[in-house]
C-alpha cells in the first residue's frame, strides 16, 4: 500500500465537503485498506476522483439497518489493478432519501445500482434504466429488506 | 357411458378436466375392442429408443447433463444423445437446474412448443421440490417442475450423477415401452 | 396473412429486434439477450438476466454460517471448490482461526484442479459455440479425470462442500497425489493435441482474432476481471495481488496478452491451465504431513459484530465475499461479488456493432456462468 | 473400343408408366435406406472420432437406431405455427424432397444401370439441386420465425455464391469430356479419372459442394449455436424429417456428382463390379465430409462470402481459362 497515493487521495477526498471520515480500514481484519464515510450528495465527485486515479468499482451493495439506526448503508468498494488497495466508502441514507447515480462514471455501477434498487428499494437519481434486474419486471417487493420473507412469518 | 357418472364427479366444476376425463374414459371403454396393439407397440418402442432431449440447461445439473452426453457416459448409446436446440424437434425436456420464478413462464412456453408425444424428466432436487433453495417464505424459485408441467421421471441428487441421468432415461424408456403416460 | 413487420424489416434493411434466449443453445444457461439488429449487424444489445436467480443472499440471512456452506459451491458450479473454500477462508479470517499447513496445501491443489476443470469446460463450450463439436468431447474427457480425482476426496463431482472452518473434511492419500501428478502429465500431452486441433486452425483464428476487443480502460470502468482482464494486458490476479491462503509460496506466472480479443482470452486460459499445473506440482512436492483440521474445530460459534471482505481468484475473475456479522450465529448480510456479473455488464458495449455470429463467439469467450451472475 | 449397349430399365419393363412407378419406388426406397444408413454412419463415425461408442443399444451396433428415429418422427405431432404463411410453410418440405428423386434418377451407377441417360444430365442435376435453395427460403419465410428467416437468407446468399464456382469447376470437366451426359463423362474417364487432370477443379468443386449442402464448416444456415436450427427451426415431426432426409440426400448427390465428374464413376483399378466402385467412391467422399464436419469450427457469414467471391470464383475462372487454353494449344 503506497503512502503517496493515500496522501493524494486524502488531498482530493479528505476535503471537508466530500468525506466525513477517513480511517484506516484495518486490512488484516476487514479486507479494506481504507474506510471512509460521505454524505449522499458527494458520491459522484468521489467516484470521479477514484476513476481518474485509476481505480475501478469492485462492488456496490447495501445494508439494511432500518431496525437499528433507521438507515440504509450503501457500501462502495473501490480497488485498483496494479496493487491491492481496497477502499470502502459508506453512505448512510434515510429510507426516503435518494442518492445520485455513478453509472455514468463507473459503468459497472449501472447493474450494481439496479440490483440495490431492486433488492432494497433505494432510488438512484439520474440512473437511466432503473428497472428490475434479477426479478420479473412485475415484482412489487424488495427481497433483501430485513422484514421481507422471514421464515417465522411463513404461513 | 353416460353423463350420469360425471354428474357425481366433483370435477364437473372444471370443464377442461372433465373433457380430458371423458376422453380418457372413452379410450378406456373402447380399449378391449379397438386396439392397434402391434402398431402402438412398435411406435412406443421407436419412441422409447429415440428420445431427443431439448438443449436447455438451467443451472448446475446442466453441466452433468452435458457430461452425460460426453464421451465417458455417452447418452447417444441409448439413442438419447441427439440434443435438439429447437423445441419443435425435441421429445423430452430434461429440467436440469433450479426453476426460478422468472424462467417459469418460459418453461411453460417451451413445453407447449414441443410436439406430442413428449416427456419430461425432473433432474435434481431443485426440480423435484425446490431442493436446497426451498425454505419457508422463499421468493425466488418454483418448488418443483411438476408445478408447471407433468413430469414423468424424477432423478434425485444435487446434482445427480450422469449415471443417474442415464438410469432416469432408461426408466423413462421402460415407461414408454409399457405404454404408460402421465400417470397421476 | 398477418403482416410480418419484423421479417419485412429484415429484408428492407431496417432495424428489427431479435430475442436470444433464455432457451438458446449458446446462452450458457439462461441468459437472454435483446438485440436490435440491422441485417445481421447488432446495433444495440441488452442482456436480461435473473432467470437463474436463486436468492443466495437472502438465504444467507436465514441460516447460520455453517448452513450457508453448501450454497457457496452452487453459486458458481464450475468453480465450486474455489467458492466453497473462499467462504471458509473469509469466516476463518473473521474468527481468526489458524489453518493447518497440510490443509492449506490440499486447498491449493483442489482449487487449482477445479480451476483447470472449469477452464477445460470453457474450452469445449467455446468451441461448441464456434461450431466445432469434437474438442468439446475431448476436453470433457480430460475433465472427467479431474472429477474422478476430486470425487475421491470430496465425494462429489460438481458441487463440493469440502471446506470446513479451519481446514477440510477429508485428508488426501498418496493415491490422490499420484492421480493428480498423472493427470497433469496427461493434460500436458493433450495440450499439444488441442493446439493442433484448434489453435492453429485458420477458421478458428478468423473467428477469434480482432473480435470482441475489450480495451483496458473499458475493462476498468466495467470492473472486468479474471482472464478477460488479463487478455487486455493487465496482469491482475488476486493470487498475486492479494495472496490468500498460501499462494505467496508458489512460483507461477500471471498469463497475459495484450490484444483483448477472443483469441487473447483463449490463449490466456490455456496458459492459465499450465500455470495451475505448475502450482499443483509444487504443492504436491511440498505438502507436509499433519492434521487437516485445527485441534479444536469450532462447531458452534457466533461472530462478533464487524465485517470482512475476502477476495479470491475464481476461474472467471475476482470473487469476493462481503460478510457483515451482527454478533449472532446468523450473518447479517453476505454479499457475493461475482466476476461474471461485471464481465457480462461490459457486453453492452462489446457486442455493439458486431455480427450475430460474433455475439455467440464473444459471449463464449468471456465464460459466463449464469447462476453466478444472478446469484 | 466398342462401347457396350446400355441396358436401361426400359428394356426390362417395356411399359413407360410401369417404369416410372417402379423407378420412383426403387429410388425412394434406396434413398430412404441410404439416408438411414448415412445418419447411422455419421453418428458412429463422429462417435469414434470423439472417443465414444455412438448408438449401440438399439439393434446390433445401433443399426436400428435410425429406423427408430424415423418411426418416432413419423408418429410425432405436426405443429404449424399460428402466424406461419401456411401454403409456403407446407410446401417447403415437399419442394426440398422431390427434386432429389429426380436428380438421383440421372446417375449412371455402372455402365448398365442407368435410369435416364440424357445428353444434358449434368445441367439437370444442377438445376434440380438448385431448387433446394428455393425450398429452404420458403421454409424460412413461411415459418415466420426470425431465426428461420435469418437462416434462409444466409442459405440463399451462400448457395448463390457457391453455385458459381461449383458450376465453373464442373464446366472444366465437361470441356475435357466434350459432353454433358453423365454417362459420357464417366466413359471418358476409362483410362484416367479427371481428378488427376483437374485437381484444382476437384478441390473447388468439393469445397463448394460442402457449402451447397450446408455441411460444416459451412453449416451457417442451420448454425445450431447461433440460429437454433436455422430454417427448419419451426418444423416438427415428419416435416423436419424431410429436411433431414434432404440434407443427407443432397450430400449423397454432391458426392455422386463428384464421383462421376472426377473419380471415374464406375471405373476402378481392378475388377470389382461397377456399382461397387461407384458406391465405394461416393461413401469415401461422404466420410471425408463427415471428417470435416467433426473437425472444423464454423466460418462466419461474411468470411464465408468473401471466401467464395474473392478466392473460389477467381480460382475457378482461372482454372477454366487455363483448361481452355491448354486444350486449344494441345489440340
Characterize the structure shown.
The complex is a heterotetramer of chains A (155), B (184), C (375) and D (331). Chain B has helices spanning 3-8, 15-30, 37-48, 60-69, 104-113, 125-129, 162-177, and strands at 92-96, 119-123, 153-155. Chain B has 184 residues and is mostly helical. Chain B has a three-stranded parallel β-sheet. The longest helix of chain B has 16 residues, at 15-30. Chain C has one domain (55-374): Cytochrome-c3 Hydrogenase, chain B, CATH 1.10.645.10. In chain C, 50% of the residues lie in helices and 13% in strands. Chain C is built from 16 helices and eight strands. In chain C, the strands form three sheets. A three-stranded antiparallel β-sheet of chain C has the order 1-2-3. In chain C, a hairpin with a 2-residue loop joins strand 2 and strand 3. In chain C, helix 7 (174-199) runs antiparallel to helix 12 (262-286) and helix 12 packs parallel to helix 15. The longest helix of chain C has 29 residues, at 101-129. Chain D is mainly α and 331 residues long. Chain D has helices spanning 9-13, 16-49, 65-74, 86-104, 121-142, 146-177, 182-188, 194-197, 199-212, 224-227, 237-262, 274-293, 301-330. At the A-C interface, strand 3 and helix 5 of A face helix 9, strand 6, strand 7, strand 8 and helix 13 of C.
Structural topology:
The complex is a heterotetramer of chains A (155), B (184), C (375) and D (331).
Chain B: H1 3-8, H2 15-30, H3 37-48, H4 60-69, E1 92-96, H5 104-113, E2 119-123, H6 125-129, E3 153-155, H7 162-177
Parallel strand pairs in B: 1-2, 2-3
Helix pairs in contact in B: 3-7, 4-7
Chain C: H1 5-12, E1 15-20, E2 32-38, E3 41-48, H2 56-60, H3 69-75, H4 80-95, H5 101-129, H6 134-154, E4 163-164, E5 167-168, H7 174-199, H8 202-208, H9 216-222, H10 227-230, H11 238-241, H12 262-286, E6 306-314, E7 317-325, E8 333-337, H13 339-345, H14 347-350, H15 356-366, H16 370-374
Antiparallel strand pairs in C: 1-2, 2-3, 4-5, 6-7, 7-8
Chain D: H1 9-13, H2 16-49, H3 65-74, H4 86-104, H5 121-142, H6 146-177, H7 182-188, H8 194-197, H9 199-212, H10 224-227, H11 237-262, H12 274-293, H13 301-330
Amino acid at each position: 500500500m503506497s503512502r503517496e497515493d493515500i496522501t493524494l487521495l486524502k488531498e482530493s477526498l479528505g476535503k471537508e465537503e466530500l468525506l466525513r471520515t477517513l480511517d484506516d480500514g484495518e486490512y488484516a481484519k476487514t479486507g479494506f485498506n481504507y474506510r471512509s464515510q460521505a454524505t449522499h450528495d458527494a458520491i459522484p465527485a468521489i467516484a470521479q476522483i477514484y476513476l481518474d486515479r485509476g481505480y475501478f468499482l469492485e462492488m456496490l451493495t447495501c445494508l439494511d439497518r432500518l431496525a437499528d439506526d433507521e438507515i440504509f448503508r450503501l457500501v462502495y468498494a473501490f480497488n485498483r489493478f496494479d496493487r491491492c488497495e481496497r477502499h470502502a466508502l459508506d453512505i448512510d441514507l434515510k429510507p426516503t432519501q435518494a442518492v445520485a447515480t455513478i453509472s455514468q462514471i463507473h459503468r459497472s455501477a449501472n447493474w450494481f445500482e439496479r440490483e440495490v434498487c431492486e433488492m432494497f428499494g433505494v432510488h438512484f437519481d439520474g440512473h437511466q434504466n432503473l428497472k428490475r434486474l434479477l426479478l420479473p419486471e412485475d415484482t412489487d417487493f424488495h427481497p433483501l429488506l430485513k422484514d421481507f420473507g422471514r421464515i417465522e412469518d411463513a404461513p | 357411458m353416460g353423463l350420469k357418472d360425471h354428474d357425481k364427479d366433483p370435477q364437473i366444476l372444471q370443464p377442461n378436466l372433465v373433457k380430458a376425463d371423458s376422453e380418457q374414459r372413452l379410450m378406456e371403454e373402447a380399449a378391449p375392442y379397438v386396439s392397434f396393439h402391434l402398431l402402438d407397440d412398435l411406435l412406443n418402442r421407436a419412441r422409447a429408443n429415440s428420445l431427443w432431449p431439448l438443449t436447455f440447461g438451467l443451472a448446475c445439473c446442466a453441466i452433468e447433463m452435458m457430461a452425460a452426453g460426453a464421451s465417458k457416459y455417452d447418452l447417444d448409446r441409448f439413442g438419447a444423445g441427439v440434443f435438439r436446440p429447437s423445441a419443435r424437434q425435441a421429445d423430452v425436456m430434461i429440467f436440469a437446474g433450479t426453476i426460478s420464478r422468472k424462467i417459469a413462464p418460459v418453461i411453460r412456453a417451451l413445453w407447449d412448443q414441443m410436439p406430442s408425444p413428449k416427456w419430461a424428466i425432473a433432474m435434481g432436487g431443485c426440480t423435484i421440490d425446490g431442493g436446497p433453495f426451498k425454505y419457508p417464505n422463499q421468493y425466488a424459485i418454483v418448488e418443483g417442475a411438476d408445478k408447471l408441467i407433468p413430469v414423468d421421471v424424477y432423478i434425485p441428487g444435487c446434482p445427480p450423477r450422469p449415471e443417474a441421468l442415464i438410469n432416469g432415461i432408461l426408466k423413462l424408456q421402460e415407461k414408454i415401452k409399457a405404454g404408460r403416460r402421465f400417470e397421476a | 396473412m398477418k403482416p410480418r413487420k419484423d421479417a419485412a424489416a429484415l429484408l428492407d434493411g431496417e432495424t428489427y429486434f431479435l430475442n436470444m434466449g433464455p432457451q438458446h443453445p449458446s446462452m450458457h444457461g439462461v441468459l437472454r439477450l435483446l438485440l436490435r439488429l440491422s441485417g445481421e449487424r447488432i446495433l444495440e444489445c441488452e442482456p436480461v438476466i435473473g432467470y437463474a436467480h436463486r436468492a443466495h443472499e437472502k438465504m444467507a440471512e436465514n441460516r447460520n454460517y455453517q448452513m450457508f456452506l453448501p450454497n457457496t459451491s452452487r453459486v458458481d458450479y464450475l468453480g465450486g471448490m474455489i467458492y466453497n473454500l473462499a467462504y471458509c477462508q473469509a469466516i476463518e479470517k473473521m474468527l481468526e482461526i489458524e489453518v493447518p499447513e497440510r490443509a492449506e496445501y490440499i486447498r491449493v491443489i483442489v482449487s487449482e484442479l477445479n480451476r483447470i476443470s472449469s477452464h477445460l469446460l470453457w474450452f469445449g463450450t467455446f468451441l461448441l459455440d464456434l461450431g466445432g463439436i469434437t474438442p468439446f468431447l475431448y476436453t470433457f474427457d480430460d475433465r472427467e479425470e479431474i472429477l474422478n480425482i476430486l470425487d475421491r476426496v470430496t465425494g462429489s463431482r460438481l458441487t463440493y462442500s469440502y471446506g470446513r472452518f479451519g481446514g477440510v473434511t477429508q485428508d488426501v492419500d498418496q493415491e490422490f497425489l499420484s492421480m493428480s501428478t498423472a493427470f497433469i502429465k496427461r493434460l500436458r500431452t493433450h495440450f499439444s493435441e488441442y493446439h493442433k486441433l484448434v489453435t492453429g486452425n485458420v477458421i478458428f483464428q478468423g473467428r477469434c482474432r480482432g473480435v470482441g476487443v475489450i480495451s483496458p480502460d473499458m475493462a476498468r470502468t466495467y470492473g472486468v476481471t479474471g482472464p478477460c482482464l488479463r487478455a487486455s494486458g493487465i496482469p491482475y490476479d488476486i493470487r498475486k495481488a492479494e495472496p490468500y491462503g498460501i499462494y505467496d509460496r508458489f512460483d507461477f506466472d500471471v498469463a497475459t496478452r495484450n490484444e483483448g480479443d477472443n483469441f487473447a482470452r483463449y490463449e490466456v486460459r490455456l496458459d492459465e491451465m499450465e500455470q495451475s499445473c505448475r502450482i499443483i506440482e509444487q504443492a504436491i512436492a511440498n505438502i507436509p504431513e499433519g492434521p487437516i483440521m485445527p485441534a479444536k474445530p469450532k462447531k458452534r460459534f457466533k461472530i462478533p459484530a464487524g465485517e470482512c471482505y475476502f477476495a479470491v481468484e475464481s476461474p472467471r475473475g475476482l470473487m469476493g465475499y462481503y460478510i457483515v456479522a451482527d454478533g449472532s450465529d446468523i450473518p447479517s448480510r453476505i454479499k457475493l461479488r461475482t466476476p461474471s456479473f461485471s464481465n457480462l455488464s461490459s457486453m453492452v458495449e462489446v457486442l455493439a456493432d458486431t455480427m450475430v455470429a460474433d455475439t455467440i463467439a464473444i459471449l463464449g469467450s468471456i465464460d459466463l456462468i449464469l447462476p453466478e451472475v444472478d446469484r | 473400343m466398342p462401347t457396350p449397349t446400355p441396358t436401361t430399365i426400359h428394356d426390362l419393363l417395356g411399359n413407360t408408366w410401369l417404369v416410372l412407378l417402379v423407378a420412383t419406388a426403387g429410388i425412394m426406397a434406396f434413398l430412404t435406406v441410404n439416408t438411414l444408413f448415412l445418419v447411422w454412419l455419421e453418428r458412429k463415425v463422429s462417435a469414434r472420432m470423439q472417443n465414444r461408442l455412438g448408438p449401440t443399444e438399439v439393434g446390433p451396433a445401433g443399426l436400428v437406431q435410425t429406423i427408430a428415429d424415423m418411426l418416432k418422427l413419423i408418429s410425432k405431432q405436426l405443429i404449424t405455427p399460428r402466424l406461419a404463411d401456411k401454403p409456403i410453410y407446407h410446401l417447403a418440405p415437399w419442394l426440398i424432397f422431390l427434386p432429389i428423386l429426380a436428380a438421383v434418377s440421372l446417375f449412371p451407377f455402372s455402365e448398365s444401370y442407368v435410369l435416364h441417360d440424357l445428353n444434358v444430365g449434368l445441367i439437370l442435376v444442377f438445376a434440380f439441386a438448385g431448387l433446394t435453395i428455393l425450398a429452404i427460403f420458403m421454409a424460412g419465410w413461411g415459418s415466420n420465425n426470425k431465426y428461420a428467416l435469418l437462416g434462409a437468407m444466409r442459405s440463399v446468399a451462400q448457395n448463390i455464391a457457391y453455385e458459381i464456382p461449383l458450376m465453373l469447376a464442373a464446366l472444366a470437366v465437361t470441356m475435357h469430356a466434350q459432353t454433358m451426359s453423365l454417362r459420357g463423362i464417366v466413359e471418358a474417364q476409362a483410362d484416367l479419372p479427371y481428378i488427376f487432370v483437374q485437381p484444382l477443379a476437384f478441390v473447388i468443386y468439393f469445397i463448394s459442394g460442402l457449402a451447397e449442402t450446408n455441411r460444416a464448416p459451412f453449416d451457417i444456415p442451420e448454425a445450431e449455436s447461433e440460429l437454433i436450427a436455422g430454417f427448419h427451426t419451426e418444423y416438427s415431426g415428419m416435416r423436419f424429417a424431410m429436411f433431414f432426409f434432404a440434407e443427407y440426400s443432397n450430400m449423397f448427390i454432391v458426392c455422386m456428382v463428384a464421383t462421376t465428374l472426377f473419380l471415374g464413376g464406375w471405373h476402378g483399378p481392378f475388377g470389382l463390379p461397377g456399382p461397387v466402385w461407384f458406391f465405394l467412391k461416393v461413401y469415401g467422399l461422404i466420410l471425408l465430409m463427415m471428417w470435416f464436419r467433426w473437425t472444423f469450427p464454423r466460418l462466419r457469414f461474411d468470411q464465408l462470402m468473401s471466401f467464395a467471391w474473392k478466392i473460389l470464383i477467381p480460382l475457378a475462372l482461372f482454372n477454366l481459362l487455363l483448361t481452355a487454353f491448354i486444350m486449344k494449344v494441345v489440340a
